[in-house]
Amino acid sequence: MTRIFAIAINTWREAIRDRIYLALLGFAALLILASQVLSPLALGEGTRITRDFGLSGLVLVSLLVTIFVGTGLVQKEIERKTVMTILSKPIGRGEFVLGKYLGLLMTLAVIFIAMTALLLAVLALRGDGFNQPVLLAALLSLGEIVIMTGVAIFFSTCTSPMLSGMMTLAVFVAGHFTADLNAFAEQAASPLLAGLTAALHWIFPNLELFNARNAAAHGVMPEAVRFSLGAGYALLYTAAILLGSIVIFRRREFR
What we know:
This protein is an all-alpha fold. It has one domain (2-176, 211-251). The chain is 78% helix and 0% strand. The protein is built from twelve helices and no strands. The radius of gyration is 20 Å and the shape is globular.
């Protein structure tokens, strides 16, 4: 566990050196722009627009950080040949993958918490007070980030950064349409197509489970049961995809 944590800390430091904190500044600029420019055009719905825009921005900025940083974490070590130096020490390949995942997750968690605090501060300045629905919706969205971090690491172990980024983005989009995949499978005329669609429904993560952003924008609290279901689902799905990442990475040959 100490070795995993050491790799995680090193990964976090690398992300900081890459000026990943600029994502936070970009989010701040977008949030201020939305609250000052879009709100007056919303016919009295300025606060709701700020909530909706801010919560969506939390996830989208985190996804961009995941794609631009996470999808190249493992491949970058391979290209630099530093992975051989690391693995020549008493560090297993599984520990290396887990350390990379935890380091990226730590980076995203820090940025996500800072963005959430910024969103709540902007809402408070607009007279919205301490917005508990927004806070809870943001916390629920963390489950989405936990899963997508695992997805990024998975693709990083088996393909190039560019292709890994594209596939991570594809999983994110598909993960918000798993209910539609299930409905399509039930109505498909071809048994083969129905089976394929049903399989995709189970393979892709159900990211809508963590989406309470629209309700929170209207001041509605997320259901308590979604937190317990979401935590269990995120834990199981992430464990499965990290296990797949470790299996693939253990079979890779470095030259």
